[in-house]
Amino acid sequence: MLLQRSAPSCLMRGTVPAIRFARPRRAERQALRGDAARTAEAMDSHRPVMLEEALAGLAVHPGGTYVDGTFGRGGHARAILQALRGSGELHALDRDPQAGAAAQREFGDTPGFHFHRRNFAELGAFAAAAGIAGKVDGVLLDLGVSSPQFDDAARGFSFSQDGALDMRMDPQSGRSAAQWLAQAGEAEIADVLWRYGEERNSRRIARRIVDARAQAPIATTAQLAALIAAVPGPRSRGIHPATRSFQAIRIFINDELGALAAALTAVPDVLAPGGRLAVISFHSLEDRMVKRFIREGRVERGEGRGERRNGKTRGADAFAPLPSPLSPLKRILRAFPTEAELAANPRARSAVLRVAERVQ
Ligand SMILES: C[S@@+](CC[C@H](N)C(=O)[O-])C[C@H]1O[C@@H](n2cnc3c(N)ncnc32)[C@H](O)[C@@H]1O
């Protein structure tokens, strides 16, 4: 099931050696935690997910060069800048113009900070143009949408607030969800709902959309949510009937899996030897793509149904590096949010962090 993963956990595989990343010292961890809290309040209420774990996984050190491919509201970026202690470079990317405005506001004057309004799908070209290809000590991707995007009704991501049915992370490029739904064939709509949302009712919903749009355009989130809620058929317990369809349409409209595939493909050439990749994903298709890339060194567009997760305990999972002649990366860590983080931030619920290192 894509949306309601059972609580993931810490699976220790055989004898686990000492964790190979430098853990921040206690005072630093406390500072990071305090900083995270301030960040969440100050920056349009996006609470960075798995902040401490991601920072430790990236092994951020002063003088290093880092790329945060998903700036959002800068929760992770702020912590990276802190760990750089005024020495080093952080290139932050985001395709959302509002993220750019927040970056300018918060870090415009910070030495070593550079914001680029770009799709992280262009990571390879970006790094080459910036002269940092093969020199980057860490790349962070914290996937999906930020809370400010989700909570702003006008962006059209949420079925619980009425707004224009847009769903684009970059509202200045590509088709909105409303434009796509106005033109797409019934089979294509059903396919998107099934592939990216595992919506068991995909065919009936697609039929209803096509019938409804013949009467009037589907222009708002409330219209689409009501239409989906009225479709009879199997329901997923505990979630709104439109949850899966909204997620699926968002992933499709923003080509989220395509962007991830392109970024991963570029990562080995962008990282310096020993450089780290840290990816926080919220969707089993993304996580599977990351896992396979780290293991096999190739990208597979995971468009089948998501993996099911069985009962596991939460926490970190340190891997002994497996010899993998095909992969330019060795896996370092997989971690899930702690119970304390989940209590403070339910939106972290389905997060998975994977960390890998470029082999020498
Ligand atoms: C989960 S939020 C990141 C939050 C951030 N780590 C923080 O602590 O504030 C994801 C962000 O990535 C951006 N994003 C998603 N896909 C992107 C892509 N392909 N290229 C650039 N930015 C992207 C979204 O616009 C959003 O702002």
Q: What are its keywords?
A:
alpha/beta, Rossmann fold, DNA polymerase, domain 1, 2 domains, eight-stranded mixed beta sheet, 41% helix, 13% strand, disordered N terminus, binds S-adenosylmethionine
CATH names the topology of the largest domain as Rossmann fold
- Major β-sheet annotation: 8 strands, mixed
Total domains: 2
- Fraction in helix: 40-55%
CATH class of the largest domain: Alpha Beta
Question: N-to-C terminal Cα separation, in Å?
Answer: 37 Å
Q: CATH-wise, what's the superfamily of the largest domain?
A: Vaccinia Virus protein VP39
Mean of residue pLDDT values: 85
Explain what you see:
The longest helix has 17 residues, at 26-42. It is built from 14 helices and eight strands. Helix content is 41%, strand content 13%. The protein has two domains: 26-148 and 256-358, Vaccinia Virus protein VP39 (Rossmann fold, 3-Layer(aba) Sandwich), CATH 3.40.50.150; 170-253, Putative methyltransferase TM0872, insert domain (DNA polymerase, domain 1), CATH 1.10.150.170. It has helices at 26-42, 51-58, 75-84, 97-107, 123-130, 147-151, 177-183, 186-197, 202-215, 221-229, 243-253, 256-270, 284-296, 339-344; strands at residues 65-68, 89-93, 113-116, 136-142, 271-281, 316-318, 329-335, 352-358. Strand 1 (65-68), helix 3 (75-84) and strand 2 form a beta-alpha-beta unit. It has an eight-stranded mixed sheet with strand order 3-2-1-4-5-8-7-6, sandwiched between helices. By secondary structure, the chain is α/β, with parallel strands linked by helices. Bound molecules: S-adenosylmethionine. S-adenosylmethionine binds at residues 46, 48, 70, 72-76, 93-96, 99, 119-121, 142, 144-146, 169, 259.
